[in-house]
Amino acid sequence: MGPQRVHDAGTSCFLELAEASPGMIWMSDTEGRCTYVNPAWLEFRGTTLAQELGYGWADGIHPEDRARCERAVAMAIRSRSTIRLTYRVRSCRGTYHVIDDVGRPWYDPDGLFRGYLGAATMIYDDAITPDAAQRLSMLSVRERQVLELVAHGWATKQIADHLGISYKTADSHRTHILRKLNLHKAPSLVRFAFRAGLIAG
Description:
- The chain is α+β, with helices and mostly antiparallel strands.
- The protein folds into two domains: 3-123, Beta-Lactamase; 129-195, Arc Repressor Mutant, subunit A, CATH 1.10.10.10.
- It contains ten helices and five strands, in the order H-H-E-E-H-H-H-E-E-E-H-H-H-H-H.
- Strands 2-1-5-4-3 form a five-stranded antiparallel β-sheet.
- Strand 4 (96-107) and strand 5 form a beta hairpin.
- The longest helix is centred in the middle third of the chain and has 17 residues, at 63-79.
């Protein structure tokens, strides 16, 4: 299915580039339903376009990551903010690979929100930071517990309730973890958790 048949002329240039791109590129509507993935994505997944459209793309996400990803997408859509995800997805060989996925809201010439344009990048083994274990050792036992829960998509209040600590204490742990690991935002914590082996690939 060519790009001109998938979307209107306003996005045809983007889609023509996407069709030829070696990177994995996608589009969604305003509800987060997939409306397009390029050939590179289909080749990696070993699926057809029809299988990936709508919410079909999420069927390839690792079961342990899917709920976290769905929550993040829903929150981004509500605020019209950028989607940033790190998760495991099943390849055509049946094995799971970790990818970074970023989607940005796009608007038509009249300023109407039309959905998201996104691209996914695979995290290869050589992207694993060699000092991950050393950096992890800087965390206290409690901080490591918090990191693992954050990496699995738990909100600060959920972490506080689960560990029997106050919200303020849980939030403080998150701040300390970011500082000790020299990271800046929660998505970076998820990527670090993958690379440190806290979440199996």
